[in-house]
Task: structure prediction
Amino acid sequence: ECIGHRRSCKEDRNGCCKLYTCNCWYPTPDDQWCKCLL
Result:
Protein backbone atom coordinates (compact mmCIF):
# COMPACT_ATOMS: atom_id res chain seq x y z
CA GLU A 1 0.00 0.00 0.00
CA CYS A 2 1.22 3.46 -0.85
CA ILE A 3 -0.32 6.72 0.33
CA GLY A 4 0.73 10.07 -1.06
CA HIS A 5 -0.31 13.60 -1.85
CA ARG A 6 -1.28 14.10 -5.49
CA ARG A 7 -2.89 16.94 -7.36
CA SER A 8 -5.04 14.43 -9.21
CA CYS A 9 -5.53 10.73 -9.71
CA LYS A 10 -4.63 11.11 -13.38
CA GLU A 11 -1.27 12.64 -12.51
CA ASP A 12 -0.67 9.80 -10.10
CA ARG A 13 -0.39 7.40 -13.03
CA ASN A 14 3.24 8.49 -13.04
CA GLY A 15 3.59 7.71 -9.35
CA CYS A 16 3.20 4.77 -7.02
CA CYS A 17 -0.38 4.11 -8.09
CA LYS A 18 0.28 3.27 -11.70
CA LEU A 19 -0.14 -0.48 -11.21
CA TYR A 20 -2.83 -0.19 -8.56
CA THR A 21 -6.29 1.18 -7.97
CA CYS A 22 -6.23 4.86 -7.08
CA ASN A 23 -8.85 6.11 -4.63
CA CYS A 24 -8.96 9.85 -4.07
CA TRP A 25 -10.55 11.96 -1.39
CA TYR A 26 -10.54 15.70 -0.78
CA PRO A 27 -9.44 16.99 2.63
CA THR A 28 -9.60 20.56 1.31
CA PRO A 29 -10.95 22.13 -1.88
CA ASP A 30 -7.41 22.71 -3.17
CA ASP A 31 -5.86 19.34 -2.38
CA GLN A 32 -6.44 15.75 -3.30
CA TRP A 33 -4.97 12.71 -1.61
CA CYS A 34 -4.56 9.35 -3.27
CA LYS A 35 -4.52 6.03 -1.49
CA CYS A 36 -3.14 3.24 -3.65
CA LEU A 37 -4.43 -0.26 -2.99
CA LEU A 38 -3.52 -3.62 -4.48
Q: What stands out?
A: The first strand starts at residue 2 and ends at 6.
